[in-house]
Amino acid sequence: MADPKGFLTHGREVARTRPVAERVQDWNEVYVPGSLLPIVSTQASRCMDCGIPFCHQGCPLGNLIPEWNDYAYREDWSAAAERLHATNNFPEFTGRLCPAPCESACVLGINQQPVTIKNVEVSIIDKAWDTGDVAPSIPERLSGKTVAVIGSGPAGLAAAQQLTRAGHTVAVYERADRIGGLLRYGIPEFKMEKRHINRRIEQMRAEGTKFRTGVEVGRDLDAAKLRRRYDAVVIAAGATVSRDLPVPGRDLKGIHYAMEYLPLSNKVQEGDYVASPLSAEGKHVVVIGGGDTGADCVGTAHRQGAASVTQLEIMPQPGAERDPLSQPWPTFPMLYKVTSAHEEGGERIYSAGTTHFEGDEDGNVRFLHLAEVEFVDGKLTQKPGTERRIPAELVTLAMGFTGTDQSNGLVEQFGLDLDARGNIARDEHFETNVPGVFVAGDAGRGQSLIVWAIAEGRSAARGVDSYLTGASSLPAPIRPTDRSLTV
Which residue intervals define the domain 4Fe-4S ferredoxin-type in the entry (predicted)? Predict the structure, then answer.
């Protein structure tokens, strides 16, 4: 145990963010560089080393949180990094992007603020990179087996790294021009600078993983031919079909999916554009959807110089604290969250349903009409007399995703079965109905969190390794049927 009295003598202290006026002028990460190291050992000392560490259950990766908290408290950064990497291929991604279900399950959180697990995690891995403790793990011998991984998001990269380290020859196919999937083009730079992806890719290349960008399996490369070329295939193509909003005026110019809007600003940071072809500069922006993707649109619009930013959420505003009856510990609660993007300004409207869009004579969107909604007999119903309109010159739809892309031919060419939710069906080993073809991440689970994606990639890798060799010592932290602990 780090400090037997740590949780009694120290309060929760999180990473400091840069001033709003400063950070909206650039695209760098919002946190003050180096602000965690002076406080992280004290924060790690708040870990209680519980007899039953529920944080393990909260995190699908099964991260060894009390162990690396203890090492961080003692400032044994090498040992802490080793324990961190034992369960997580990419802690610098999760430490920045994960909503931290481990903290919701922290036993200290029953009657205090939980341990800053996420901040400790990112401090450990950043220190490990700085000190050279992150090195390629090259397999001692090759198996002679080949594996294709379709998709380079967190699930695909985790599966590829595990299988490469097991001695298989792995090639990752990515339809975009750069590796990273939504980590690259869906997450704004101010949440995670892409240098973190780049150095992981270089580590994986040094280990032997091959990368093929600009290749969309199904369109550019026939899936059946790919299957014949490799001994096994892992589909980690994500759930990229955006949920639409079929209301009058949807076809007006200026209404875009979030995943049409966000990647362009990331391409500016990559040097592909001087300015985004789809910019919020000087415009009244409305973001429909109250989740993390919506918040990413809000922060992006601020940095592009929007005249105003309004975010709409159809559900009621959640509470600021956990309700012990409706959302008891250790479930993951739905709480009112103020992200760094929300700190930067804009308006948030809850219980708001969009009725229609209004445009000008040139077909450009100019106003969004909304009304308050409420639950009546379990159904969302519009409240009479609450209709109004707000300025809207750029609208982004950030309402989640409905399943994996079927328009490119990948599902049909492989001959894959789908489940009732439109995801690719798989068995307990993550194998589809086609022998030797496996699925990991959102393509099989549906839209989920980055920790679940990495856990799926690691688990699917074990299924592939067993298929190729007859047995496997690779870890499998989850089953395909596992779900988050919720009410």
Answer: 38-69
Rounded average pLDDT over 354-366: 98
Beta bridge partners of 394: 285
Residue carrying the six token digits 């150095």 = 199
Which run of H or E residues covers position 163? helix 154-165
Looking at residue 358, its pLDDT comes to 98
Q: Which helix (H) or strand (E) holds 390?
A: strand 388-391
Specify burial of residue 486 (Cβ count, 10 A radius: 0-12, 13-18, 19+).
exposed
pTM for the predicted model, two decimal places: 0.96
Average pLDDT over the chain, rounded to an integer: 96
DSSP class of residue 23 equals: H
Which H or E run contains 64?
none
Model confidence at 1: pLDDT above 70: no
CB 438 within 8 A of CB 160: no
pLDDT of residue 64: 95
Q: Where are the beta strands (DSSP E) in 79-128?
A: none
Mean pLDDT of 211-235: 97
154-165 helix and 195-207 helix, angle to the nearest 10 degrees: 30
Secondary structure of residue 225 in the 3-state scheme: helix
User: What pLDDT, in 10s, does the model give residues 376-404?
Assistant: 988 999 999 999 999 999 999 999 999 99
Q: In whole angstroms, what is the distance from residue 148 CA to residue 234 CA?
A: 6
**Cβ pair 150, 160 in contact under 8 A:** no
Tokens 């349903």, residue located:
353
In three-state form (DSSP H/G/I as H, E/B as E, the rest C), the secondary structure along 265-319 is HHHHHCCCCCCCCCCCCCCEEEEECCCHHHHHHHHHHHHCCCCEEEEECCCCCCC
Query: Beta partners for 349?
Result: 312
How are strands ordered across the β-sheet holding 255-257?
255-257, 394-397, 284-288, 308-312, 347-349
The two structure tokens encoding residue 342: 């929300």
Calpha distance 201→327 (Å, rounded): 39
Q: Which residues of 251-282 are buried (b: 16+ CB within 10 A; e: fewer)?
A: ebebbbbbbebbbbbbbbbeeeeeebebbbee
What are the backbone dihedrals phi and psi of residue 93, each rounded to the nearest 5 degrees, phi first? -80, -55
The answer, yes or no, to whether residue 182 has pLDDT greater than 70, is: yes
Query: Residue 187 forms beta bridges with which residues?
Result: none
- pLDDT at position 350 is 98
Roughly how many angstroms between the first and final C-alpha of the chain, as a whole number?
31
| Nearest Cα residue to 235 out of 347, 320, 153 | 153
256 Cβ neighbours under 8 A, 6+ residues apart: 278, 394, 395, 396, 397
Distance separating alpha carbons of residues 325 and 487, to the nearest angstrom: 10
AA letter at 16: R
Q: Under a CB-based contact definition with an 8 Å cutoff, are residues 121 and 94 in contact?
A: yes
Tens-digit pLDDT profile for residues 321-351: 988 889 999 999 999 999 999 999 999 999 9
